[in-house]
Amino acid sequence: MEYKIETNSPEETREFAKKMAESAKPSDVITLIGDLGVGKTVFTQGIAEGLGIKDTVNSPTFTIVQVYDEGRMPFYHFDVYRIGDIEEMDEIGYEDYFYGDGLTMIEWANLIEEILPEKRTEVTIEKNPEKGFDYRLIKVKTID
User: Fold this and answer.
1) 61 with 84: CB under 8 angstroms?
2) Domain containing 68: what range?
């Protein structure tokens, strides 16, 4: 399954992600791909909100993974932008998260393509300055 949605503000992007999270199930994996400044963190904050997480959600750029336990299921938020070697993911024990009992969100997932689960939801966010500063094209693709 594949579809696209256009948003015109960070609030619309967050709201779309929130709705996605409301239908998420344990062990779901969402990969998030997009350039710097495209709104990956805003999208992730919407996912967290949809799971009922009240904590402030920021990108775990230097810690690679941040775990949030207070929602309706655990939320594992990865940012693999600074991964130097795929073996770093083994050291973290990524499989426990990817195949665990929570929702896993992986920013910059294209950098660890070889270890991604076969079943996942791929979200790509793109800007188009010609359509406005806050315009985003969000592509959602289910991969089985």
Assistant:
1) no
2) 2-143
